[in-house]
Amino acid sequence: MIEFQTVWGWQPALYLFLGGVGAGAFITAAVLYLIDPAKNKKLAFISSLASIACLAVGLLLLLTELTSPLRGLMVWQSFSNFGSLMAIGAWLLMATMIVIFANAVILSGKIAKVAEEKATLVCRVLSIVGIVCAAGVAVYTGVLLMLADGIPFWGTALLPCLFTVSALDTGLALTMILFQWLRKDEEAHRTSRIMEIAVLILVAVEAIIVFAFMSTMLAGGEVSTVGNDTATLAAASSAQLLVSGDLSGWFWILFVGIGLAVPFAAALASIAMGEKASAKWASIGGAVCALAGGCALRFLVLLAGTHADYITDAVSRLLY
Amino acid sequence: MLESQNISRRSLVAGGAALGCAFLVGGKLVFPTGQAVADSGETGETVQYGFWCDTSFNNDFKECVEACRTANNIPADEEALCEVRDYLSKYGRYRHVFTSCMHCADPSCMKACPASAISKQQEDGIVVVDHDRCIGCKYCNTACPFDVPRYNASGMVKCDACLSAGRTEGKAPACVEAVANGALHFGPIDDLIKESGGRAMQITAPTSPSYLLS
User: What distance lies between CA A10 and its chain's CA centroid?
Assistant: First the structure.
């Protein structure tokens, strides 16, 4: 059995990460906009741009990974099988980018003819539509892997759950960085506190899901009864790679430590520091760490996703 | 003036929603979730061809891998479309197992392909790749329980029982032609099981591989 899964390498890993961050950043900003359109308009606008940038770079990476990128651009043919989640995801991503772009254009105020109240109404609608689409993108990044029949380690609904929470977590982190950059110190304290509390909740939920995911896989995963033993073995050995094997350093230090524990502590510190200037730096530090950890998560999940070995299983059953 | 504007905006939204629904439904009709080729299910008269590897001959299959490379023009720096696994039992006995593509009855690679580039032939159940459609996204490799798909500049490559190497009906693939004894067979799976006298067992996996081992 191969040590690491390497057919899907760094481009798909980064694509999954950027898809998650882009989706999560837009959801965070759109929620803040819906809470208070007047105050959070600028943040929503900048976040929309950042979100589009993430999704666009992700798509570009995906294209470069293809053996025929030009043919890949012929989307009406190359993503025509809607029985494949790869195809569904491509269209969903494109639709999401269009919605976010439309939202950004109106938020920019460049369309002079549209009056303020109408613009806010349209942006509210686009925010809601955008949140639904972006949530779809976040979930899709996990479901794409879950439906890959050849990889037992990915075959659980806990994976899309994990990727979705991680998308919100990393998206919130990106929006947090943009927020701290744009803020005018007098007014921003309440929004900052809301975001820090959201960090605490998201990190806690993500930690619980990761624990459930690893426990499930160490116990043999969720596999069909046909070819049971070999898939069980593959799921367990994949999880072992992360928890105690060759990838465990990256898993525990970069993902769990820097990606979850540090942002959690930083959020607590930021809340405790209240309105002091250092609270801002705790927020930013925690956010950068969350982004690093979220990126590491995608790489780790891909690397650990090895195939089961049905041939060896058949040989041991039939020939010995 | 304001009244008529409100009414037209409402009908615009309703019209937009209706259009959106029509687009979704139309899309589902135009792009059906099934595959281009009719499925060779249990009810049809389709025959499922596959390989039978008989390890009792102790053949190391090196000539088969060589023949495969030659017939399919695989460069030396690329992986062959087949592989041989060597197993050593605790009694010191070697078994060499030759595998290529399983040509599964229910291929997950076919379902996974976003470009509908993979299809299953009606007449013999061989799973083939259309290189004019394949974009090389590698999703089929994550879908295949046996890690069969490989990739080069033209997209996904795998065993297609030498169809793209110009094999005519009735002839055997290059690997089977190359084997001197009866270590490797290719034919209708049901016939091969009978031919083996029940010795050969079909291996089990969620995709129902068309492959016998003895």
Answer: 15
The angle subtended at Cα A266 by Cα A264 and Cα A269, nearest 5°, is 115
Token readout for A76 is 């009406």
User: So what's the architecture of A10-319 in CATH?
Assistant: Up-down Bundle (1.20)
Q: Which residue shows structure tokens 């460069």?
A: B75
Return the SS3 of A36: coil
Closest Cβ opposite residue B203 in set A84, A154, A310: A310
| Partner residue facing A318 (CB), from B114, B137, B213 | B213
Taking an 8 Å cut-off on Cβ atoms, the answer to whether B143 and A148 are in contact is yes
- Asked if A160 contacts A213 with a C-beta cutoff of 8 angstroms, the reply is no
* B50 CB within 8 Å of a chain A CB: no
Whole-model pTM: value is 0.88
Name the DSSP letter for residue B53.
E
Q: Is the dihedral of CA A152, A155, A160, A161 positive or negative?
A: negative
CB contact under 8 A, A80 and B116: yes
More confident residue, B10 or A193: A193
- Based on its alpha-carbon atoms, the radius of gyration of chain B, rounded to whole angstroms, reads 24
pLDDT tens-digit readout, A2-48: 589 999 999 999 999 999 999 999 999 999 999 998 888 899 999 99
CB contact under 8 A, A318 and B214: yes
Q: Provide the CB-side half-sphere exposure for B65 (13 A, CA).
A: 17
pLDDT tens digit string along B121-170? 999 999 999 999 999 999 999 999 999 999 999 999 999 999 999 998 88
Q: What is the pLDDT of residues B80-129, one digit of tens each?
A: 999 999 998 878 888 999 999 999 999 999 999 999 999 999 999 999 99
CB contact under 8 A, B31 and A82: yes
d(CA A167, CA A135): 9
Rounded CA separation A177/A284 (Å): 6
Q: Give the whole-angstrom CA distance, residue B99 versus residue A4.
A: 21
A168: DSSP letter? H
Which pair of tokens denotes residue A239? 């999880």
pLDDT tens for each residue of B114-123? 999 999 999 9
